[in-house]
């Protein structure tokens, strides 16, 4: 009998939560097959079968387990089940469904009932006659069909849709236990808010140059590197240059000392169904644009599939978060402690801008830099953000981190 115990997942982690069983008691599992998923305060990870055999689960989904605690047992002496013999069943007769429409009836207009709508004939006629949008009707008939009473109720409450599986008058509540990851997120955000002298400074960047570069080279970039050219590579490289010039923004407080970092390990905020994760890209200052895009794609897939390791989630020196993907126009991001600053990207929006006495339309993005005022002064924070803006509006400077003309003139 093989005992499967909760593995060690990190030095500071003593407890995990059993998210789900991929196999159940009595199932025959193969060696190295994933049998369960666990969640620590930092990441989720899989548990594999150490031997082939019949599984017996000990813990239940949702249980909090100590490191080394028994999860399950595997009887490796059990024989593998025999593969079932395939029997080809005769094909069922083909049944043709005839639509109840007049031979001369044409596809309905936008204010009529769609041809594929699940509704009884009477309900369909009522929908078309009263010009009721089927999307505003909650079906209660068999197989999810709309019946006459459903249409009449929708007509009584036009434009009022209840929550799913509830009536218009329902006021139900439900409780759901917080996951370890969500509890950790809540704890860290409150600690960052209460434990730092957080302040936010804003600026805006004209994205015309970056959009022009992407339009001109995105196909060749994809062909050469096998990955798309997004915005994150521009922002990550710009921040790596600015962090070198403004080292306090890349520093952190360690007791009564300031710890400066001579490298840019940039964390990127990734939203997942289980909550916000912040994986780290190491040494961004030494990465190419393609390297950044490949790493971003890799980390995003790992975050989505809960495959991030504890090492990939720790040790960043600066964070970038992009609320623009959700439509955010402006926000004040919270510092990712123990880091001292975080850059917030936002939605690109065309706005009228004054340029040389003329009003022109430009694709603009608001930038927000939240920082710990205990070690970063206004000069450093504003200087950093202005430098990021300059690099983004002049992408050629990302190549050497300086203005090419000034470099040529040695000024």
Describe the structure.
Residues 94-115 have low confidence and may be disordered. It contains 8 helices and 19 strands. The protein has 3 domains: 2-75, RNA polymerase II/Efflux pump adaptor protein, barrel-sandwich hybrid domain (OB fold (Dihydrolipoamide Acetyltransferase, E2P), Beta Barrel); 108-160, E3-binding domain (Dihydrolipoamide Transferase); 185-409, Chloramphenicol acetyltransferase-like domain (Chloramphenicol Acetyltransferase), CATH 3.30.559. The termini are far apart. The relative contact order is 0.11. With 411 residues, it is α+β, with helices and mostly antiparallel strands. Helix 1 (121-130) runs parallel beside helix 2.
SSE topology sketch:
Elements: E1 2-5, E2 15-21, E3 28-29, E4 34-39, E5 44-48, E6 53-57, E7 64-66, E8 70-75, H1 121-130, H2 148-156, H3 180-195, E9 198-206, H4 208-225, H5 232-245, E10 252-254, E11 257-259, E12 266-268, E13 270-272, E14 275-277, E15 280-281, H6 289-304, E16 318-322, E17 341-345, E18 349-355, E19 358-372, H7 378-393, H8 404-409
Parallel strand pairs: 12-16, 16-17
Antiparallel strand pairs: 1-8, 2-4, 2-7, 3-6, 4-5, 6-8, 9-19, 10-11, 12-15, 13-14, 17-19, 18-19
Helix pairs in contact: 1-2, 5-6, 5-7
């Amino acid at each position: 009998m093989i005992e499967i115990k909760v593995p060690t997942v990190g030095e500071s982690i003593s407890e995990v939560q059993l998210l789900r069983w991929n196999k159940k008691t009595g199932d025959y599992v193969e060696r190295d097959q994933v049998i369960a998923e666990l969640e620590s305060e930092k990441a989720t990870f899989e548990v594999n079968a150490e031997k082939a055999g019949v599984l017996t689960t000990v813990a239940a989904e949702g249980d909090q387990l100590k490191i080394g605690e028994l999860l399950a047992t595997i009887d490796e002496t059990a024989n593998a089940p025999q593969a079932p013999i395939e029997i080809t069943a005769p094909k069922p007769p083909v049944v043709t469904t005839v639509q109840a429409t007049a031979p001369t009836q044409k596809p309905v207009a936008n204010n009529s009932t769609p041809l594929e709508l699940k509704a009884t004939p009477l309900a369909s006629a009522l929908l078309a006659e009263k010009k009721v949008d089927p999307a505003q009707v909650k079906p209660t008939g068999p197989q999810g069909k709309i019946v006459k009473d459903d249409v009449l109720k929708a007509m009584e409450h036009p434009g009022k849709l209840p929550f799913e599986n509830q009536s218009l008058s329902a006021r139900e509540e439900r409780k759901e236990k917080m996951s370890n990851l969500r509890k950790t997120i809540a704890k860290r955000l409150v600690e960052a808010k209460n434990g730092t002298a957080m302040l936010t400074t804003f600026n805006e960047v004209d994205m015309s140059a970056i959009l022009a570069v992407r339009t001109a080279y995105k196909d060749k970039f994809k062909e050469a590197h096998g990955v798309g050219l997004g915005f994150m590579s521009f922002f990550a490289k710009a921040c790596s240059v600015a962090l070198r010039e403004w080292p306090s923004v890349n520093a952190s407080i360690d007791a009564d000392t300031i710890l400066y970092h001579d490298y840019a390990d940039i964390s990127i905020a990734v939203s997942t169904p289980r909550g916000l994760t912040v994986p780290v890209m190491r040494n961004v200052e030494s990465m190419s644009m393609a390297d950044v895009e490949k790493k971003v794609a890799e980390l995003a897939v790992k975050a989505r599939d809960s495959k991030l390791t504890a090492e990939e989630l720790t040790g960043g020196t600066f964070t970038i978060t992009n609320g623009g993907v959700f439509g955010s126009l402006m926000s004040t991001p919270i510092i990712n402690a123990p880091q001292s600053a975080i850059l917030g990207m936002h939605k690109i929006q065309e706005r009228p801008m004054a340029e040389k006495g003329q009003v022109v339309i430009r694709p603009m993005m608001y930038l927000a830099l939240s920082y710990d005022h205990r070690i970063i002064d206004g000069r450093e924070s504003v200087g950093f953000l202005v430098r990021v803006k300059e690099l983004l509006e002049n992408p050629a400077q990302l190549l050497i981190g300086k203005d090419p003309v000034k470099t040529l003139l040695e000024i």
